[in-house]
Specification:
Blueprint: E1 13-19, H1 23-28, H2 32-40, E2 50-54, E3 60-68, H3 70-73, H4 79-84, E4 90-96, H5 100-112, E5 128-130, H6 138-156, H7 164-178, E6 181-186, H8 189-192, H9 196-202, E7 210-216, E8 222-227, E9 229-233, H10 242-245, H11 253-268, E10 273-283, E11 295-297, E12 303-305, H12 313-326, E13 331-336, H13 340-346, E14 351-355, H14 358-370, E15 375-378, E16 395-396, H15 405-414, E17 423-427, E18 431-432, E19 442-443, H16 448-458
Parallel strand pairs: 1-3, 1-4, 4-5, 8-10, 8-13, 9-10, 12-16, 13-17, 14-15
Antiparallel strand pairs: 2-3, 6-7, 7-10, 11-12, 14-17, 18-19
């Protein structure tokens, strides 16, 4: 679906966004008829409150939206998107009340509030349009919205229609759209190309595992994005219970998110050299499935004891990270729906991330706050390194005990990155469990907008 602003020449209804504390002053500046109408409707500028003011013919003359108090706004985001849901179909423009980052967030939220996943069911078309607010970069906001839509569509598509081949098709289409170069290593060629753990995880499926590789840009600093592309995760021989398998179509959420981010970067023409790596597999079950206590030898020659075949994401990421690290990019970022432990720690709304670089961590935190894409830094806690060392092999893919599961997974991945100067890992959820402003229930991008915002400082663009 397209997420675009309305054309400038389209007639539109002004939207006035009014804080609770400034409502009296704003109301006093309006015609008496407007003030009387607002008073008659009990409008007090509470957060999300909406009042349509009619003209003499009864048609909407303006929409007044309450922006509440700072304490109320701090408990959520995309508040204008929530208010917009109460407006009738039509085209609107923001007349006053917001500026800067708050205005950009409002515009983006409005665009994303129109998202619909229509592949399997027709829905009523969204007829709520917004003109470009004065003072924002429309092309940037539209690019971000389009990247988010790509991510959502990929995650929302069930594994029956989003296996490794279909993910490859989407990957190649994205590359073709932006003139990027691609390479795909598939099936047994993964062994000859020294990507053995990607092969091991995906070999039991009748849909061949593969590594997707995209390169774009010919000048500037280098950025590599690695996204977990497990198109469905049964848990392998350590099969998941039904209650845990129900959302596993979203286990390629890391891949979907880096692809959405790549779309933003390439659409905006950032002056950098981008590489995107996606190990695309299905963790299935048959006689060739990898087994508990198998020992795998990774691309990096580190050996891994498999103590749970349901901890497969870190295995496919490890080979992809080792490959990425050989290029020594200026910055390397991995994104994955990796652990339930991360959800227990921070819930579904926060994207936890790991990095040893305090400067990069601060930039990411500030960027997430600036663009309403909340992040939370987690520690690469060195004292837990011994937990991922089983003794019989170099590494354990699933330490016993269950403590610090997200941290030990991140530590595992860090073992495969030892040359790149800046590395960050995001353990995202990729799913909106309950509808929220600008985020319907279903697949959702996390961390991409924060990363995009951080790149000028991280890479000195």
């Amino acid at each position: 679906m397209s997420v675009k602003f309305a054309k400038e020449e389209t007639p539109s209804i002004p939207v006035y966004i009014v804080e609770a504390g400034g409502f009296d002053d704003w109301s006093a500046s309006q015609p008496a008829s407007v003030t009387a109408w607002l008073k008659a409707n009990g409008f007090a500028a509470a957060l999300g409150e909406v009042c349509l003011v009619p003209d003499k013919t009864g048609m909407p003359e303006m929409a007044v939206v309450g922006y509440g108090k700072p304490a109320a706004r701090a408990r959520g985001r995309f508040h204008l998107a929530k208010a917009a849901a109460a407006l009738p179909a039509g085209t609107y423009h923001i007349q006053s009340g917001l500026e800067g980052a708050a205005l950009e967030e409002a515009a983006l939220g409005w665009l994303l509030s129109g998202y619909q996943f229509t592949r399997y069911r027709q829905q009523k078309p969204n007829k709520l349009r917004l003109k470009v607010p004065e003072g924002i970069d429309a092309a940037r906001v539209e690019a971000i919205a389009a990247g988010e839509v790509l991510t959502r569509d990929l995650i929302n598509t069930p594994a029956s229609d989003m296996g490794p081949q279909e993910l490859e098709d989407a990957f190649l289409a994205l590359a073709a759209e932006h003139g990027a170069k691609t390479q795909v290593v598939m099936g047994d060629d993964l062994l000859t190309q020294n990507l053995p753990m990607i092969h091991a995880v995906g070999r039991a499926s009748d849909r061949a595992p593969r590594l997707l590789d995209m390169r774009w840009g010919d000048a500037g600093p280098t950025l590599t994005l690695v996204g977990k592309g497990v198109c469905f995760d049964t848990g392998g021989l350590n099969i998941k219970p039904g209650s845990s398998m129900g959302l596993m179509k979203k286990d390629m959420g890391g891949a979907a998110t880096v692809m959405g981010l790549a779309h933003m970067i390439m659409t905006l023409g950032l002056k950098l050299r981008l590489r995107v790596l996606v190990p695309a597999v299905e963790n299935a079950i048959n006689g060739s499935a990898f087994r508990p206590q198998d020992i795998l030898t990774s691309r990096k020659r580190l050996t891994v004891e498999v103590n749970n075949t349901d901890a497969e994401g870190r295995l496919v990421l490890a080979d992809a990270l080792a490959l990425a690290d050989e290029d020594v990019p200026d910055c390397l970022i991995s994104m994955a729906t990796l652990t339930g432990a991360a959800r227990v720690a921070v819930g579904p709304d926060l994207a936890p991330y790991y990095t040893d670089d305090d400067s990069m961590a601060a930039i990411l935190a500030d960027s997430g706050a600036a663009v309403a894409d909340p992040l939370w830094r987690m520690p690469f806690w060195d004292p837990y390194e011994s937990m991922i060392e089983p003794g019989i092999a170099d590494l354990d893919n699933a330490p016993a005990g269950g403590f610090a599961g997200s941290i030990t997974a991140a530590l595992f991945l860090r073992r495969f990155v030892d040359q790149t100067p800046r590395y960050a890992h995001f353990d995202i959820y990729g799913w909106q469990p309950n509808a929220a402003p600008a985020r319907p229930k279903g697949g959702v991008g996390q961390g991409a907008r924060a990363i995009l915002e951080s790149l000028p400082k991280v890479l000195d663009l």
